[in-house]
Amino acid sequence: PILYSYFRSSCSWRVRIALALKGISYDLVPVNLLKDGGQQFSAEFKAINPMQQVPALKIDGITLSQSLAIIHYLEDTHPNPRLLPQDPKKRAQVRMVAEHITSGIQPIQNLSILNQMGEKKMEWAQKCITSGFQALEQILQHTAGRYCVGDEVSMADLCLVPQVFNAERFKVDMGPYPTITRINKALLELEAFKVSHPSRQPDTPAELRA
């Protein structure tokens, strides 16, 4: 497999966690979202992903984009360890939390949107993340065990950790979100989350390396 990734992309990080958890080795091709006006806009990369976004994964003779679609494929083809619970209610809760982050928070504070916000970039990101986290904290108070849904790592957790990383980058006060903070801390102790961390990627700038 070949993963096209950017070290700080939260969508790429979700996929890196899934690959690490499932023990799938891969080659990483860095796509720098800032360099050369954004390498994702090159004709070469557009041929790989017409949406001009990371991640993209070449695997089993196909090329997949969109992090959740990639993770679902990995779940279907490498079912252990499981990232979706067998219980239908818990499975729905996992998808709900994942969608809350991947549809409701991350897209409205991603690079392409922030670039259009000019000087209000930080303020906008904080507003988007704060309103999303207020809802997410309430949801997790009902669904969480050790992790987002119960005591098993799920697709929801793969979405949570990169989003908290974004929140910290944009200096969001995490005080009002004790459940999110607790789960994030527990997840960052797991090896798959450590090896996939933005501070430990081949394309991580020297000053940001762990």
The total beta strand count reads 4
Query: Ends: how far apart?
Result: 26 Å
**Protein structure class:** alpha+beta
Main β-sheet, spatial strand arrangement: 2-1-3-4
CATH class of the largest domain, named Mainly Alpha
Q: What is the fold named in CATH at topology level of the largest domain?
A: Glutathione S-transferase Yfyf (Class Pi), Chain A, domain 2
The helicity comes to: 40-55%
Q: How many helical elements?
A: 9
Using the CA coordinates, give the radius of gyration: 16 Å
The profile of the biggest β sheet is:
4 strands, mixed
Shape: globular
Low-pLDDT stretches are: none
Q: Which series of helices and strands comes N to C?
A: EHEHEEHHHHHHH
How many domains, in number, for the residues?
2
CATH architecture of the largest domain: Up-down Bundle
Mean pLDDT: 96
Query: Beta-sheet strand percentage?
Result: 5-15%
Subcellular location: Cytoplasm
GO biological process, one term: glutathione metabolic process
GO cellular component, one term: mitochondrion
Domain GST N-terminal: 1-82
